[in-house]
Amino acid sequence: MPVVREQWAPAAGLGPMLAAARMRAGLRGREAARLIGILHLHLVQLETGTHRPSSALAELLAETLRLDAAEQAQLFRAAADAMPAAAARASEIVQAA
Q1: Where are the domains of the chain?
Q2: pLDDT tens figures, 16-73
Q3: CATH topology of domain 14-96
Q4: Which intervals hold domain HTH cro/C1-type (predicted)?
């Protein structure tokens, strides 16, 4: 039986938001990637919208880049594995704000 994959679409505005948050935090790309624990190339792919983060990576990005509540909610909604746990996390953030 063939594997059916869900259509992937980049999350609108996620990449630029991550890049702006990184710059606001005063971090260069390589430094931010090192602090997050990912390759610089992966961070570039996230910031250009060619990749979406997992929920676990979204947690690290939110903490390292000190994202505000709205940015965190956007990030968790866009997570590649945005299943109930990620969607619930986004809802928690919005409700707490």
Answers
A1: 14-96
A2: 999 999 999 999 999 999 999 999 999 999 999 889 899 899 999 999 999 999 999 9
A3: 434 Repressor (Amino-terminal Domain) (1.10.260)
A4: 18-72
pTM: 0.76
Q: Say if residues 78 and 14 touch (Cβ distance below 8 Å).
A: yes
Q: Which of 28, 10, 8, 21 is nearest to 70 (CA)?
A: 21
Q: Which residue has the tokens 């590649």?
A: 80
Of residues 11 and 27, the one with the higher pLDDT is 27
For residues 76 and 91, give the distance between their C-alpha atoms in angstroms, rounded to a whole number: 9
The rounded distance, in Å, linking the Cα atoms of 72 and 58 is 8
